[in-house]
Amino acid sequence: MRNPREAIEKAYAHFGWPMSDALRQRLDEATQRQEKFQSKHEYTLEEYGLSKDWIQRDLGELLDYYKLER
């Protein structure tokens, strides 16, 4: 989760729950840790049965729609 505080604040607001200053502080700390996090995992398309050719051919319109690199 990129921004834990924002996600939790939205949930609290949705249910009308009050949020303590202590919780806000802990969420700020979690957000700061998350911003520095870098996964050590590296995956390839082939591990998931995918290929660049398939993505280009079958998902090209979707990539274009979201302005993602082809």
Summarize the structure in words.
The protein is an all-alpha fold. The chain has two domains: 4-36, no CATH class; 41-70, no CATH class. 60% of the residues lie in helices and 0% in strands. The longest helix is centred in the middle third of the chain and has 16 residues, at 21-36. The chain starts with a helix and ends in a 5-residue tail after the last helix. 1% of the residues are buried. The mean pLDDT is 90.
Structural domains: how many: 2
Main pleated sheet: none
Number of E strands: 0
Cα-to-Cα separation, first versus last residue: 26 Å
Helical proportion, percent range: 55-70%
Features:
0% strand; mainly alpha; 70 residues
Short account of what is shown:
With 70 residues, the protein is mostly helical. The protein has helices at residues 4-15, 21-36, 52-65. The chain has two domains: 4-36, no CATH class; 41-70, no CATH class.
